[in-house]
Amino acid sequence: MAGLNLEIPTVKLPDGNSIPILSYGLGTAWYKRNDNGSLDQPTIDGCKTAIKLGYYHLDGAEMYNTEQELGKAIKESGVPRDKLFVTTKVHKSINDIPTAIDASLSRLGLKYVDLYLIHSPNSVGNADHGKLKEAWKAMEKVKQEGKAKSIGVSNFLKPDLDAILEIATIAPAINQTEFHPYLQRGDLIPYNKEKGIAVSAYGPLVPLTSAKGGPLDQYLEGLAKKYAVEPAEILLRWCLDQDVIAITTSSKEQRLSDYLRCLTFKLTPRELEEISKIGSEKHYRAFWQKNFDENDRT
Q1: What is the mean pLDDT of residues 32-60?
Q2: What secondary structure does DSSP assign to 193-240, as a single string?
Q3: Dihedrals φ, ψ of 68, to 5°?
Q4: What is the pLDDT of residues 222-261, one digit of tens each?
C-alpha cells in the first residue's frame, strides 16, 4: 500500500478554521529527553516521510523537545506553509506564554502555528484553576496577535474546562486527550461537544501496543479481515466515526501509508458500539498515570 494516494479530509473547528482529521504526532515515539541543541535526524526524516504521504496535520509540543526537527522537516518538505496544519503546545513555559509562543515559533521557523494548546491542566501545577484562567487569557492574546490561528487545551477534564469557560472570551477550539476503547473517558467526549469544543485523540492505537492482549484483539482481527485492512485502521476509524480527530505516528513509511486506509471505509453503528462495549471490559491508561487513581476512567 506504499502507493496509496489519499487526501486526508478536513473538518471545521468551532472557530471556523479547518483541521485535517488524521494527524502525524511527534510525541512519545520521537520524544527527546535532552534538548542539547543537536538535531535528531531520524525525527526529521520521519516527519518528512509523513508529509510526503499527505499527513499535513503535524502535532508537536514544547515538551517533546523536537520543535526544531519539526521546523526543519517542514522547510525541507517543499510543501507550502498554507497547506500544512501545525500544532504545538506550551507546558514548562506556561507562566510566560508570550515568551513561550515566540520561542516555539523561532524553533519551528514559522510566523504562526495553526493550533496552540495548553499541554495539560497540570502545566500550571496541581491544575490550579486560578492560574489556568490567567494562562487562558494569555492564550487568547496569542490568537489575537495572529501567532496562532486557533487555541485550545490538552488533557483537560470537565472541571478544568469549566474553569476557563467561566472567563473565556475565546473558547477552546479543541481538547486533545488520550482516547481509545480501553479509555473512553466517561462522558468527557460528549461534554466537550456539548460545550462546542472539538476533540482529538492521542494514543488511539494503545489497544494494539502497550495494552495488547486484551478483550478486543479477536474482534478487531475479524473487522480487519472484513474491511481488508489492519486492526490499527479499525481503531483509527473508531475515532473518526465518532467525530474525533486521530493522532498517530510511526517511523515506518509502509505503516503510515497503511494507516491511510482508515479513510476508505466506515464502521457500522453496531460495530462502533461493539468495539466500545468490548473495550469497556478493560481499563488501561497509557499516559499521565501518576495524575489519576488506578481505577479512574475519566
Answers
A1: 90
A2: HHTT-EEEEE-TTGGGTTT-SSTTHHHHHHHHHHHTS-HHHHHHHHHH
A3: -65, -40
A4: 999 999 999 999 999 999 999 999 999 999 999 999 999 9
Mean pLDDT of 196-207: 97
* pLDDT at residue 2 in the model: 45
CB 15 within 8 A of CB 116: no
* pTM beyond 0.70, yes or no: yes
Phi (first) and psi of residue 192, to 5 degrees: -55, -50
180 is catalytic: no
- Calpha distance 103→35 (Å, rounded): 14
List the catalytic residue out of 119, 180, 227, 259.
119
* 51-57 average pLDDT score: 98
Query: CA nearest 122: which of 159, 165, 167?
Result: 159
Residue 119 designated active-site: yes
Catalytic member of 24, 56, 64, 219: 64
